[in-house]
Amino acid sequence: MIRLAARALISLLANAVGLVVAAQLLDDMSLSVAGFVTASLIFTVVAVVSEPLIRQIALKNVPAILGSSALIATLASLILTSVLTDGLRISGLTTWVLATVVVWAAALAANLLLPLVIFKRVLAEARDGA
Questions:
Q1: What is the pLDDT of residue 97?
Q2: pLDDT score for 123
Q3: Average pLDDT of 38-64?
Q4: At what angle do helices 69-84 and 36-60 cross, to 10 degrees?
Q5: Which of 4, 24, 35, 77 is the most exposed, fewest CB within 10 Å of its CB?
Q6: Residue 41 predicted with pLDDT over 90
Q7: HEC per residue, the chain
Q8: pTM of the model
Q9: Looking at 32-101, which runs of residues are DSSP E strands?
Q10: CA 29 to CA 122: how far, in whole Å?
């Protein structure tokens, strides 16, 4: 249970980092301060639910897109987040494509690095105890 909660926290923080990085890099994407938490929560919930679903559909029907299922889930999450909240605004086809790639890449990097930062003490204790 603790591991699941830690994983959820890491995903939420990583997706928040991805959204902030994309909003800072792309002129036609904005993330309001007031809607940031709501946008991050909605984005994370949609991403967590849609990625396994998209992966399963791709595995059964279109194996060629299996490798891009995370990008498709990121795009779906961005679309639903922008529709469901006023905190995220993206305009222009190019910005949608770039936002998908930037959010995905930044969230992936954050997903890899955040556990090392957040759980540094726990990892050190586990290493020293082993």
A1: 97
A2: 67
A3: 87
A4: 140
A5: 4
A6: yes
A7: CHHHHHHHHHHHHHHHHHHHHHHHHCCCEEECCCCHHHHHHHHHHHHHHHHHHHHHHHHHCCHHHHHHHHHHHHHHHHHHHHHHCCCEEECCHHHHHHHHHHHHHHHHHHHHHHHHHHCHHHHHHHHHHC
A8: 0.84
A9: 88-90
A10: 37
